[in-house]
């Protein structure tokens, strides 16, 4: 397959794909299953494939909607004018509107967790529950190890050079790549889509650079200040061995959200959906089935 073909592959477990033309831009979404809606939000330099193993375990009982957002590994340019964190969170909320989803369980990871925090504090109308796996919070946006990428995005050709250096699979296991995000190597087909999308399409690369230029902890701090106002059930499902989002972040989220509880997942780094999809799926399934007033007491 060509680089472009490899970059566009999406796991069949994610279900049928379609493009949504939203007020803020175009995104692709995948849908599998029926039942209560669970919407999955990925982070920077990954895509819908991040959730393939979890969706495979949940789509028998739930309507799993997986977004493919313009975060550098997307299959086609979004044309979005606003790729700041609030603009990206707006795309998430616009997708819920376009699909007419209600009482959604919103699940976020990494940068997608930051966008989920912005979404529930700005446009919570369609969101009934929140699940945060290891993700950005307050001043940890991004984690220190990835801050140089923000500076490189301002240098012409630098982001392309970084991604091009990750074509060989061994390089992808470096700590500053995916090596400290998963304990185990990622499936090659999925990992290729993370690395190759911006190499295959200049417009995708340009959107990635715009996203990197807009990352600023003031957005996550503003959202965090408003989180006490989101009183719907929240689950903080955190990796015990996470290397990027420690320093009390999960405990702080659990205490700041008024109807939240913290659950720990063993033998996993940041991408719990890659390392431990079964325990994560079980936690999400049980959480969605709980009575709304039971979450904090559980």
Sequence stretches where pLDDT stays below 50 over 5 or more residues: none
Overall pLDDT confidence:
96
> Based on DSSP secondary structure assignment, what is the total number of beta strands?
8
The residue fraction in helices comes out at 25-40%
* Fourth-level CATH superfamily: Alpha/Beta hydrolase fold, catalytic domain
Identify the overall geometry.
globular
Distance between the termini: 49 Å
Summed up, the helix count is 13
| Secondary-structure content class | alpha/beta
Secondary-structure element sequence?
HEEEHEHEHEHHHHHHEHEHH
Strand fraction: 15-25%
- In CATH's first tier, which class applies? Alpha Beta
Reported for the largest beta sheet, the result is: 8 strands, mixed
The CATH architecture can be given as: 3-Layer(aba) Sandwich
Rg, please?
A: 17 Å
How are the strands of the largest sheet arranged? 1-2-4-3-5-6-7-8
Q: How many structural domains can be distinguished in the coordinates?
A: 1
Verbal overview:
The chain is an alpha/beta fold. It has one domain (3-294): 3-Layer(aba) Sandwich (Rossmann fold), CATH 3.40.50. The chain has helices at 3-8, 52-58, 85-98, 111-122, 147-152, 158-164, 175-179, 188-200, 202-214, 217-226, 249-256, 272-275, 277-289; strands at residues 16-22, 25-32, 37-41, 63-68, 104-110, 127-135, 234-239, 260-265. An eight-stranded mixed beta sheet has the order 1-2-4-3-5-6-7-8, with helices on both faces. Strand 7, helix 11 and strand 8 (260-265) form a beta-alpha-beta unit. Helix 2 crosses helix 13 and helix 3 (85-98) crosses helix 4. The protein starts with a helix and ends in a 9-residue tail after the last helix.
